[in-house]
């Protein structure tokens, strides 16, 4: 499992994940939805459903998580959280496997995106088809040379 990826996934969500539960849960979810992309938030919640109890029971990990929650953009705080997270996951291989499955499940969905394009000679029109994805953007006017996305 990629601990760096897991840390980067959880870091912006920790201020909200640490507050989940009880009366604050609904307001926390609303606030998170305003500040975090929905797919990231959903993935983080799935991971947290497995990891949250370990964070609460391991003092060093809990402190590291709280530090990241206070300043999510801090790479130094993320490094400490990452180190503590790695220790806990090594001590709990079943937990690590469950989290890896969640991350793999989400990544396999992204890997299934397929884009097909057909170029015609009718004034350079492009006909395209995408499956399992969203199309964002539009190209209008005359384009000379190559286009990279």
SSE ordering: HHHHHHHEE
**Poorly predicted ranges:** none
| Tally of strands | 2
Distance between the termini: 29 Å
Strand content bin: 5-15%
Distinct helical segment count: 7
Secondary-structure-derived class: mainly alpha
Described by the principal axes of the CA atoms, the overall outline is globular
Could you tell me the radius of gyration in angstroms? 20 Å
Kindly state the mean pLDDT as a whole number? 76
Q: Biggest sheet, strands in spatial order?
A: 1-2
Helix content percent band: 55-70%
Q: For the report, how would you describe the main beta sheet?
A: 2 strands, antiparallel
In short:
Helices cover 62% and strands 8% of the residues. By secondary structure, it is mostly helical.
